[in-house]
UniProtKB/TrEMBL annotation:
This is Aldo/keto reductase. It comes from the Bacteria. The keyword Oxidoreductase applies. It comes from Brasilonema bromeliae SPC951. InterPro entries: Aldo-Keto_reductase, NAD(P)_OxRdtase_dom_sf, NADP_OxRdtase_dom.
Length: 346
């Protein structure tokens, strides 16, 4: 698996990371054994970036990751988000970036993950009620104490990022980035490159829609929160499914799947960024990793792969075709409901 540097502080991760959120909630029923097997196979295939959060499944996800990486701690880079507040019934009740809350959050995460330190630690959103200098200052103290190695931010605007970076070097920013979410290219991505900060792009498949396997019927599955997001409702969904058909046609011409093509596009945007791909099943993991060279050779487990495809090589012409077919703002609907959009790019 290709390794890429995020920031200038020494953080090095696989070009594709594994997002574990859906293993605990949001995208239908969970299967802990299959999820654990998926994490372990990802590690076997060269993925070292494992992304979780203390609020996924209200703690369940960290406990799941602990079981999966037992005995393999040195093979993984743990990316952990904190700050989102959940109610007893799983509802969202705000964000907390206060220093005292950070001390509490890190204590629980270290215990649930059964580790001595977290590699990349960052607030899931910018708390509008707490100066970013205070939040990052508290994280800097954790670095001094050896409980955290690198600091990141999530969904932060350029001006917020500059203020944070002035307090302590920020190694990476996590934000949604895909063929359908390209808004960061105008200002945030140039700011990251100016400051020498890496990008961790999540949801390269737009929560699965770019895989070509999601339709109106499948979104009605019990427990799937996507059906309540603007991009996956009514006329927006109809429009967006039409875009998926375009992606399928281009993928067919490249002899790959739509998911592989969408991931390969993100990876091709620069060697200072990586893509977080969320999946809870090994068969989809294998397909997704077909977008990079790690899917060919080097690991004994690859003999069992059901998806054997070469790494996707995108030519200048391919990139131009994709960017022409999926320009900024071509997708219908916002990424999140209105209340949650207030916390992105903050």
């Amino acid at each position: 698996m290709e390794r890429r540097a995020l920031g200038h502080q020494g953080l090095e991760v696989s070009a594709i990371g594994l997002g574990c959120m859906g293993m605990s909630e949001f995208y239908g029923p969970r299967d802990d054994q299959e999820s654990i097997a998926t994490i372990r196979q990802a590690i076997d295939m060269g993925v070292n970036l494992i992304d979780t959060a203390d609020f996924y499944g209200v703690g369940h996800n960290e406990e799941l990751v602990r079981r999966a990486i037992e005995g393999r701690r040195e093979q993984v880079v743990l990316s952990v988000k904190f700050g989102a507040l959940r109610s007893y019934d799983g509802g969202w009740i705000g964000f907390d970036g206060r220093p005292v809350a950070i001390q509490n959050a890190i204590a629980h995460s270290l215990r649930r993950l059964n580790v001595d330190y977290i590699d990349l630690y960052f607030p899931s959103r910018v708390d509008p009620n707490v100066p970013i200098e205070e939040t990052v200052g508290a994280l800097a103290e954790l670095v001094k104490q050896g409980k955290v190695k690198y600091i990141g931010l999530s969904e932060a605007a350029p001006q917020t990022l500059r203020r944070a970076h002035a307090i302590h070097p920020i190694s990476a920013v996590q934000i949604e980035y895909s063929l359908w979410s390209r808004e960061i290219e105008k200002e945030l991505l140039p700011t990251l490159r100016e400051l020498g900060i890496g990008l961790v792009g999540y949801s390269p498949l737009s929560r699965g829609l770019l895989s070509g396997k999601i339709d109106e019927t499948s979104l009605q599955q019990s427990g799937d929160t996507r059906s309540r997001m603007p991009r996956y409702q009514g006329d927006n969904l109809t429009h967006n499914l039409g875009l998926v058909e375009k992606l399928k046609a281009i993928a067919t011409s490249k002899n790959c799947t739509p998911a592989q093509l969408a991931i390969a596009w993100v990876i091709a945007q620069g060697n200072d960024l990586v893509s977080i791909v969320g999946t809870k099943r090994r068969k989809y993991l294998e397909e997704n990793l077909g977008a990079v060279s790690s899917a060919l050779g080097g690991f004994p487990d690859l003999k069992q792969l059901r998806t054997r495809r070469a790494a996707i090589t995108l030519t200048k012409g391919d990139l131009e075709e994709l960017e022409h077919s999926f320009p900024v703002n071509v997708v219908a609907g916002e990424r999140y409901p209105e209340a949650m959009m207030a916390y992105v790019y903050a």
